[in-house]
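Narrative of activities, Objective 1.

The group set out to show that a structural description can be obtained from nothing but a protein's sequence at a throughput compatible with the screening campaign. Below is one input-output pair from the validation batch, recorded exactly as produced.
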Amino acid sequence: MMMKKNDFTRRKFISTVSAGTAAVAVSSSIPAFGNITSINNNSGKLAILGGTPVAPAKVWPDWPYVDEKVVEEVVKTTRSGIWCRIQSATGTVSTFEKEFAKILGTKSSVCVGSGTQALNTAVEALGIGPGDEIITSPYTDPGTIQAILVSRALPVMADLDPDSFQLDPDDVERKITKRTKAIMPVHIMGQPCNMERIMAIAKKNNLKVIEDACQAFLAEYQGKTIGTIGDVGCFSFQTSKVLSCGEGGGLISNNDELMDKCYTVQNHGTSKRGKTETIGSKYRMNEFEGAVLLGQMPGVRERHNTRNRNAKYLTEKLKGCPGLVPQKLYEGTTAGSFYLYTWSYKKEHFNNAPRDKFLKAVAAEGISLSGYISNGLHKEPWTSHIQTLPEYKTMFGAARLKKFQDELLLPKCDQVCQDMVMLWASGPLLGTLADMDDVINAVLKVYENRDKLNSI
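Output recorded for this entry:
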C-alpha cells in the first residue's frame, strides 16, 4: 500500500518508541510492537482478512477489582451480624463515608444504594420538585434524568460540545427559563465538564449545581476534586465503575446543612435526630456494600494513577493518527477518572469506512473497542411519555411542553453518538504499557490498511 510521506504508520511507531517503552514497561513481557515483525509474512495483513492478529487471545486485568482485603472485609461483616447501617454507628458504611469524604477533600459524605439514588437524593434535598426544571445532558445513563423525573421535575436537554462530549455551556445558558432551578452537568467518561463556565452561569442566574460525577471518582479540575465544585456531587459504585461494589452511590458536599438533608431524604425522611421530617425514599447503603468499598480503598489511588499514566501514554503514542481524536479535556483538567478512554472516529481518515467496519477490524486484531451510547436520551420514548401524563400537563402547560419537544433537536449529541469510540477503562487501563502497545498496534495496523476496510 502506498503511504503519503507524512503519514503516521505503525512502522514509524515501532522504530521511534520501541526502545523507550522497553525501559519503562511495567511488565516483564516483550511489548507487542517488538514482536510484530517476527510473527509471519502475513503480519501486515488485517486479521479480519486472514492476517495474523496483533494480540490474539488478549486478556485484560480482572474486573471488578478483588483482593484478599476485599474478601476479608466481607467475611468480617458477614460474621459480625451487622448487615444494616442503622445497627451500628461505626459499621462499614459510616466508616467508608468518612474515608470517601477524606479522599475527595470534603467535609462529609452520605452513601446510598446507587448513583441514581444519589442524584435523586440531591434533587429532593435541594427542594426541587413539581413544576421545576433542571438542565442536563442527553448523553448519559438514564439514571441522570430518572433522578429528576421521579421528583416530577422536568429534565431539559442541552446540546454537547462535540469535541469533549460534555454539556455545551452556551446551550445551557440558552435553555434557562424562569422555572430553572439547577444545572446537572455530567462528567462523562470520568472527565471534568467546563465547570468554570457552568459555575459562572449558575451564579449569574442563581441556580444550584448538582454534579453528576458518577463516572468521575478522583478526577481533578483547576485544583479541585470533581464533586466538590458544585453544591453537591453524586457518585456511582456500580460494578463497572472505577470504585465499585455491585450497586451503590455516594453524595459529597461542604454544606453541612445540605448533607444533613441528604441523610434525611435517603433514610425514608427520618433525620439523625430520629424524627420523620420530610418526604424520602429508603435509599440506605447496606453494610456488605460498605465492606466491599472499604476493602478497595488501600490501593484505589495507585490504580487511579495507573489509569492516568496509561491514558496519557495512549494519547501520546496515537496523536499522529488523524482518524482517532481523543476526548478533549478542558483547561485545568489535571486528572481524569478514565472510566472510559474515548476518541472521536473520523471516517474521512479511514477511507470513509463506517465506524462499525473499523471496530470489526480492530476486534479481529484482538482489541475490543466499541461505541457507547447509541441514542441520546432526547431520542428515547420518555420524552413523549411525560407529555401524556396529567401531572406534567398541569404543571407545565401545553406551550411549555411544546417548547420542550421542539428543543429536542440536538445535532451535536447525535454526532457524538455516531462518532465516539471507546476502550472500557476501569479494568483495561490497569494493564501494562505492553498492553497499551497492543491497543496502539491494532489501531495503527488498521489505519495502515484503511483502504481495505470497505471490503470487510
